[in-house]
Amino acid sequence: MSGKSNSNDIELLEFPCEFPLKVFGLNDEGFEADVLELVRQHCPTNTEFQVTRNQSKQGKYQALTITFTAYSRQQLDDIYQSLTDSEQVVMSL
Prior knowledge:
Layout: H1 7-11, E1 17-26, H2 31-40, E2 50-55, E3 61-70, H3 73-85, E4 89-92
Antiparallel strand pairs: 1-3, 1-4, 2-3
């Protein structure tokens, strides 16, 4: 599996909706800011993000859950593509 959401799951969504995006990467300084910037590029200017953070047991990895209002499947596809293209992101769901 590529780490992307199953397209059938996305088709079941009614837009706009609150969408919890999970992003995993190394626990490096700046990871959260960089990921938020990637997501922000595909969202309206006034989008608010709720972020929760978890670290792996040994602190090597960080998991972010970024909840925001998603407006279309295309928007989510574009966000996932940007995250996939980022070397900092290990996986996104």
